[in-house]
User: What shape does this take?
Amino acid sequence: MKNGNKKTNFLLDVLNEKCPKCRQGYVFKQNVHLLKLPIMNDKCDTCNYRYDREPGYFLGAMYISYGLAVLQGVITFFIFHYSFPSLSTFFEIVMVILVMTILGRKNYKLSRVLYIHIFPW
Ligand SMILES: [Zn+2]
Assistant: This one.
């Protein structure tokens, strides 16, 4: 896809949390405290595209976030289960919970950005 004279890539734009319309502005505020929930911008700084259209708009993003968390948990479990067969199941479950907790913040942002890229207004 082309935007002006700059090439864009859907996957890179989603991973970099870019605006679904202009692919230049950021959906989330940058450099926010790591232990707090990410803060979403109301609209794009570049093209004024409004991100939060209506109450409950991002309800569907919860399904994406859930899917990502389950996928990451299953992958983590299999990595630890087959790479370290002597580990106890309890430790494998602790590692799954740890990885899911660490990636929770990124999942929150990624699911919302992916949702507005899939279902733009
Ligand atoms: Zn924009």
Summary: The beta strands are 2-3, 6-7. The helical segments are 10-15, 59-83, 89-118.
